[in-house]
Structure formats: structure tokens, C-alpha cells
Amino acid sequence: MDTLGKRVKMMREKLKLKQEEVAKITGISRSNIGKIENNQIVPNCNAILELAMLFNVTTDWLITGTERFNIKRELEVLTGDVGRLSDVEVDMILKFRQLDVRDHEDVIGTINMKYNRVKKGMSFNSMNGESGEEAATKEYA
């Protein structure tokens, strides 16, 4: 995909949207959507932002074609309770998203079971004066 127009058309078709639908969602006229796709005009900044949000891509990728669906980067900048995610955690999330609902339930059940076992071990061992890390290490040793 060497042009912005080709990328816009590809994403529109991937989402199975008509030019009229893209126009209605983004506020860009249908004729301008066609002109963008045919590389007859270059969209302004607001139009690029609207298209990127609609297609769930970065503006960088839409303009240059060099950064497509950078989920890993998006996840790494999470803050708060989650904090930064390691490469292993990002990989697990991406794989989890590929599973069906039944497999989601199995994975969540397994994680909850293991978490509860470790948490229970930590509570028991903390009563014996061990730290949570010592308790977790001891349980798996």
C-alpha cells in the first residue's frame, strides 16, 4: 500500500463500508472520500484523524503506511493498576484475543484457580511469618 488513498480504500473495504457510510460517520463528503481514495486530493488533518479513528489505525500508518495496528505499543503505555506490560503479557493478551468465548472461560478459570492457590498459600504462610514472595516460592519449590 504505497498511497494514503489505497490505504483508505483498503480499510473501508475491509470493514465492508460504502463510501456513503464512511462519509456519514466521518463528516467527510462522499465525493471527497472518492477523491481521497483515487489520490486526487489529500485530506486535511481533521479528516485524517476521523478516518484513523474509524479504521482503528494510527494516523502515522494512514499517512505513511509504516505503522499499522501497533497494539503492542498501545498496551505498553498503559498506566495505573496495570502498569507497563511485559512482552510476555502483551503476547498472552494478543493470543487470548484470538480464542473463542469457551476458550476464554477456560483460560480465565485456570488463571483464577492458580491465583487463588497462590493467594491462599500467601495468607497461610504470612501467618507463619513468611513474606508473600517466600510463600509463593515455597509453594512452587
Cα shape:
elongated
Poorly predicted tracts of residues:
none
Q: Measured on Cα atoms, how large is the radius of gyration? A: 23 Å
> What's the mean pLDDT score?
82
Discrete helix count: 9
Helix fraction, binned, reads 55-70%
Termini gap: 53 Å
Order of helices and strands: HHHHHHHHH
Largest sheet: none
How would you describe what is shown here?
By secondary structure, this protein is mainly alpha-helical. The chain folds into two domains: 4-67, Orthogonal Bundle (434 Repressor (Amino-terminal Domain)); 75-140, no CATH class. The chain is 69% helix and 0% strand. The chain has nine helices and no strands. The chain has helices at residues 4-14, 19-26, 30-37, 45-55, 59-64, 71-76, 87-97, 101-127, 132-140. Helix 8 (101-127) packs across helix 9. The longest helix is centred in the C-terminal third of the chain and has 27 residues, at 101-127. It is elongated, with a radius of gyration of 23 Å. The model has no long low-confidence stretch (mean pLDDT 82).
Q: Which short descriptors sum up this protein?
A:
141 residues; 434 Repressor (Amino-terminal Domain)
State the gist of this model.
The protein is mostly helical and 141 residues long. The protein has helices at residues 4-14, 19-26, 30-37, 45-55, 59-64, 71-76, 87-97, 101-127, 132-140. The protein is elongated, with a radius of gyration of 23 Å.
